Amino acid sequence: MTTPPFDCDIRSTDPDQTGHRRARFRDGWREAAKGHYYPDEVLRALTWDNLGNRLGALFPAASPQLVDELYEWCVRQQREQGQPAAGPRRTESTTAPAEVAAD
Fold first, then answer.
1. Domain that holds residue 35
2. Average of pLDDT values for 58-65?
3. Is 3 part of any domain?
4. What's this model's pTM, rounded to 2 decimal places?
5. Residue 35 region, left (φ>0) first, then alpha (ψ -120 to 50), else beta?
6. Cβ neighbours of residue 78 under 8 Å, at least 6 residues apart?
7. 1 inside domain
8. pLDDT tens string 16-52
9. What is the DSSP string of 26-38?
C-alpha cells in the first residue's frame, strides 16, 4: 500500500518541545488502524497527525511500542534531513524504514 505524495512538510521542527506532536502522531495512527484514512486533500500538507495516519494505514497492527519507535525514527529522519517547516515539495510516496519493511 502506498500513500499519496505531499506538497509541503509543515511538521514542527522541534517535535520534542512538548508531548503534543507525539500524541497527534499516535492519534493519526489509531484512526488509520480503525480504518479511518484521511482524504488526499488533508494529506497534501504533511503534519505529525497525518504522518501517523499514513504509517498506521501501512502497519495497522503495530504495538504501541513500535508506534513510538517509528515516531522517534521520523523525528531523527527529519533532523538528519534538516527539513524546515513548509519545506520543499515532495513527490514520493511514504515508505517504511528499512528495519520495519524487512520484517
1. 8-101
2. 96
3. no
4. 0.75
5. left
6. 9, 11, 13, 15
7. no
8. 677 789 999 999 999 999 999 999 999 999 999 999 9
9. HHHHHHHHTT-PP
The residue count of the chain comes to: 103
Q: Buried b vs exposed e over 33-50: b needs ≥16 C-beta within 10 Å?
A: beeebbeeeebeebbbbb
Contact 10, 86 (CB under 8 A): yes
Q: Flag whether pLDDT at 84 surpasses 60.
A: no
Work out the end-to-end distance of the chain between its first and last CA atoms, rounded to an integer number of angstroms: 16
Number of domains the chain is built from: 1
CB distance 35 to 9 below 8 Å: no
Q: Is residue 53 part of a domain?
A: yes
- Write down the mean pLDDT value for the chain: 81
